[in-house]
Amino acid sequence: MREISIREVTQVVKRLCIEANYSLREDVLSALREALRVEESLMGRKVLEWLVENARIAREEGIPICQDCGMVTVLLQLGQGVRIVGGGLRGAIDRGVREGHREGYLRKSVIEDPCFSRRNTGDNTPAIIYTEVVPGDGLKVTVVPKGAGSDNSSALKMLNPTDGASGVKTLVLETVKKAGANSCPPLVIGVGVGGSFDNVGLLSKKALLRPLDVANPDARIAQLEREILEEVNDLGIGPAGFGGRVTALSVSIETSPTHMASLPVAVNLGCHALRSAEAAL
Fold it and tell me: Domain for residue 35, yes or no?
């Protein structure tokens, strides 16, 4: 059995928190550049130019892409042949988040009490952690900092099974229309379909991790992704909500088996500063 020290986990989480906030994903940056080619609105083109320039400055000068450095979700793929040694995994991850936000000068946005005092924890912890046990003797760590503007505009609904694919499309369009400029378009739209109430939101967040130029391997779902993207862009919300052709850069749908009486659907909107970074130990 392979041993991985919690010190290694802390260091990689710290590094990924900074990397994700400083360096826009290459697939997102490429999509923004492609959007410049098709955007017809003069104001929309200016916004897209600013976003590309903002990403360049953040990467080159080592500063956050956006002032909202997000609440950190950490996705772990833990090999069955791995033993974590030296302490607790939760503590190691939270230390990485704490150190990354301090050393990277990242804004701390997490509050400890959502209903009453709403006092800031001061270090952006605790992280939200999901662990999947997989074959092998490695540990893959994915850090996803998600800002409130896009997450606040997301939606989850238990549809009727008879609503089918058209119901999924309707929910996505309603969610994007309601969000308007608040979700900081152009968007990356992650959609989870199936599973249960408690896991379909995670499914939609995982959909945001798929490279933007990669369609769902199921031809039927890939076609639905294309149809939704076209209809979203026909809404005319445009970059930053100023109007235009490009309201979304991509739509990614992930599905899971579900109960025959259910059709859970979650729509997780990703803003133009869609951030994630990963590493393997």
Answer: no
Same domain, 131 and 170: no
Q: Which three-class secondary structure string do you get for the chain?
A: CEEEEHHHHHHHHHHHHHHHHHCCCHHHHHHHHHHHHHCCCHHHHHHHHHHHHHHHHHHHHCCCCCCCCCEEEEEEEEECCEEEECCCHHHHHHHHHHHHHHHCCCCCCCECCCCCCCCECCCCCCCEEEEEEECCCCEEEEEEEECHHHHHCCEEEEECHHHHHHHHHHHHHHHHHHHHHHHCCCEEEEEEEEECCCCHHHHHHHHCCCCCCCCCCCHHHHHHHHHHHHHHHCCCCCHHHCCCCCCEEEEEEEEEEECCCCEEEEEEEECCCCCCEEEEC
Supply the pTM of this predicted model: 0.96
Q: In tens digits, what is the pLDDT along the chain, a chain of 281 residues?
A: 999 999 999 999 999 999 999 999 999 999 999 999 999 999 999 999 999 999 999 999 999 999 999 999 999 999 999 999 999 999 999 999 999 999 999 999 999 999 999 999 999 999 999 999 999 999 999 999 999 999 999 999 999 999 999 999 999 999 999 999 999 999 999 999 999 999 999 999 999 999 999 999 999 999 999 999 999 999 999 999 999 999 999 999 999 999 999 999 999 999 999 999 999 99
What is the torsional sign of CA 30, 34, 36, 39? negative
Q: How many domains does the chain have?
A: 2
Residues 81 and 140 in one domain: yes
